[in-house]
Amino acid sequence: VRPRSGSLRMKITLAWAAGSLLVFALGAAFFYRDFINALDDSVTRALIVRVEDLSVVPALDRATLEADGQVVFPSQEPPLVEGEQLAAALEGRVQFDTTIEDVGEARVVAQPVVGADGSTAVVAAARSLGPVNRARERLALELGIGLPLMVGVMAVGGWALTGAALRPVRRMSRQAASISADRTGSRLPQPSGRDEIAELGHTLNQMLDRIEAMVVRERAFVDDASHEFRSPLAVLRGELELALLTSGTTKEIGARLQSALEETDRLAHLADELLVLARADAGQIRLDGGPVDVRERAGAVAERLRPIAPNEIRVTGPAAEASIEGPLADRIVENLLMNAVRHARGVVQLTVAPTDQEVVLTVGDDGAGFEPSRQQDVFDRFAVGDRSRGRTTGAGLGLAIVRALTEASGGRVEAGRDPVLGGALVTVHLPAAGSHRRLTGGSPASSR
Amino acid sequence: VTGPALVPRPRVLVIEDDPRFVDVLERFLTKKGFAVTVTMSGDQALWALNRAHPDVAVIDVMIPHPDGLEVCSGLRKAGWRGPIAVISARANDRDHDAALHAGADVFVAKPFRLADLEATLRCLLEGRRERQAPPS
Questions:
Q1: Would you state the pLDDT for residue A381?
Q2: Nearest to A238 among B17, B21, B89 (CB)
Q3: Residue A275 burial (C-beta neighbours within 10 Å; 0-12, 13-18, 19+)
Q4: Residue A243 burial by CB count (10 A; 0-12/13-18/19+): exposed, middle or buried?
Q5: Do A263 and B111 touch (CB under 8 A)?
Q6: Ranges of H-type helices in B78-113
Q7: What residue of A is the nearest CA neighbor of B67?
Q8: How far apart are CA A370 and CA A443, in angstroms?
Q9: Which of A217, A331, A396, B20 is deepest in the core (most CB within 10 A)?
Q10: B85: which strand partners?
């Protein structure tokens, strides 16, 4: 694999190598210092022992001097200790480094001795520092070669290890690059094991599942929406063609145009409904709207619908404040009532019942009711169940909008059979004003 | 005693549940010289077939149970050999194939020009006449 600057692998390897270099360099520095100090001390200690030995040899001439382990009698020229160092040595033990002819750099230890006659002399011993210096140079050379080598080995190891660890990521990345909106069925290769990278692969695949489901849903929605636009367009087009063909009275042409006008109203209404759904989908609805009195709103909407409804609309229940935007509450009530009115034989019953946490709004009718097998789907967009109950609605969006607006406001919906009237029953649970609890987990199956 | 009165009007059976579109089709096809019989649900299709003896059928896919495709294959199973035009507002390739598979002769997507529908029906009727009376 070609090393790429800026790649995670390169960064990890560089950091790893830099860390190794730092640790090794510090270790080597401490080792070097301690080793050389120990060597140095051993030379000094050996000289001290030697000087002590010489001090107690009675037969020895006081001027005995020793250089590099060789005893030299009586002394050497120039003397090992002289001047200031001699003066200091007469006071107590001294040590210093100096250069001795034929020996080179050497360490000298000198101390005073008092003779039997009371006179004071200086005993000194010296040892060459050559072996110490050679050891120092050798160690420096070995560390100088060994250190970069070790860092190099660590870097190569780090490069190989990160390469192996990141291989599944690279595979996933390649596969992800080939996934497009047209190929939503593809998934990333799932790394084996249970490590973080396997978990990442699993999580990303779950995300792809969700995206695919969403894309499928969106496509079905667009497909359905297109279909719902085509039906009124077919009528509209037909009416206009007929109007052009009509050679009869202006009254007949007027009727055709009137019908065409009604179809354009249907189309406009459909566009409006799609817009409401898009708004709910886009999360543009406030969760803490209101408070609004659902009973009052329902009464007002029912009042508005009564003149055009062929059935009786009853509204019962006490005042109940829910946490929802007012226009949304109106829309929910209107869609529920319109749906019920369309399918009722004679009576539509709307009931408002407040509890501690929620306001329960039910709309029942005495029509044929939902087919049990399709009860789960009545809130789906362009629900087939809606159509099977008669195609006077145009689009099957009424109950879908009820669900979208209710859920966007933090509530939930259910569909079932009205126990009293015998027809369909739709129940909407809205969060009560002041309760910010989301009412979730409702299934559209049960009824009361 | 004029020419057109002697030619039998072709009989067309329309199976469509949208009353507005039924109205449009009925008026147009009648104006164009067809004898139109309408049924608004699939389960009455066979009954209407036996009563009206149509020369050609126009069936919408999206009608309540059984749907238009089921009606189409039902008519074929019942032995009816007349041409069938399936119309639908749902018009992707899958719907098109499903219609032909169910025994339809032609698939027409809504919205369409009424004149095109007329031309299609006449074409289907023409083809049927040729099949029934092949040149010796």
A1: 79
A2: B21
A3: exposed
A4: middle
A5: no
A6: 93-101
A7: A388
A8: 15
A9: A396
A10: B58, B106
User: Would you say the C-alpha torsion A418, A424, A430, A432 has a positive or negative sign?
Assistant: negative
**Alpha carbon distance B119, B123 (integer Å):** 6
Interface test with B, best of A227, A233, A256, A262 (most B CBs within 10 A): A227
Q: Is A143 on the interface with B (CB under 8 A)?
A: no
Taking alpha carbons only, the member of B63, B11, B8, B67 closest to residue B35 is: B11
* Cβ <8 Å between B114 and A239: no
pTM of the shown model: 0.57
* Cβ burial, residue A318 (10 Å; 0-12/13-18/19+): exposed
A 355-374 → B contacts, CB under 8 A:
none
Nearest CA-CA distance, residue B130 and chain A, Å? 30
Dihedral angle of Cα B58, B61, B62, B67, to the nearest 10 degrees: 100
- pLDDT category at A4 given cuts 50, 70, 90 is low
Name the minimum distance, in Å, from the CA of B112 to any CA of chain A: 6
* DSSP assignment letter at B9: P
Q: Which residues partner with A113 through β-bridges?
A: A121
* Chain B from 73 to 132: CB within 8 A of any A CB: 89-92, 109-115
* Residue A442 to residue A32: CA distance in whole angstroms: 75
Highest mean pLDDT among A2-16, A173-187, A200-214: A200-214
B96-103 LR contacts (CB < 8 Å, sep 24+):
B98/B69, B99/B61, B99/B69, B99/B72, B102/B69, B102/B70, B102/B72, B102/B73, B102/B76, B103/B72, B103/B73, B103/B75, B103/B76
Subunit contact B24:A238, Cβ cutoff 8 A: yes
A7-23 b/e with 16+ CB inside 10 Å = b?
A: eebeebbeebbeebbee
Exposure class string for A203-213: b at 16+ Cβ within 10 A, else e:
ebeeebeeebe
Q: Are A447 and A422 in contact (CB under 8 A)?
A: no
Q: Do A230 and B114 touch (CB under 8 A)?
A: no
How distant is the Cα of B18 from the closest Cα of chain A, in angstroms? Answer: 7
Residue in A with minimal Cα distance to B64: A388
Q: What tens digit of pLDDT does each residue of A360-389 get?
A: 999 999 988 888 877 778 888 776 544 433
A230:B25 CB<8 A: no
Side chain identity, residue A196: E
Query: Inter-chain contact A245–B28, Cβ cutoff 8 Å?
Result: yes
Residues of B in contact with A234 (CB under 8 A): 21, 24, 89, 110-112
Residues of chain B positioned with their CB less than 8 A from the CB of A239: 24
* ipTM value for the complex: 0.86
Q: What is the mean pLDDT of residues A142-148?
A: 93
For the beta sheet containing A424-431, the strands, ordered from the edge strand earlier in sequence to the opposite edge, are A312-316, A347-354, A358-365, A424-431, A412-417
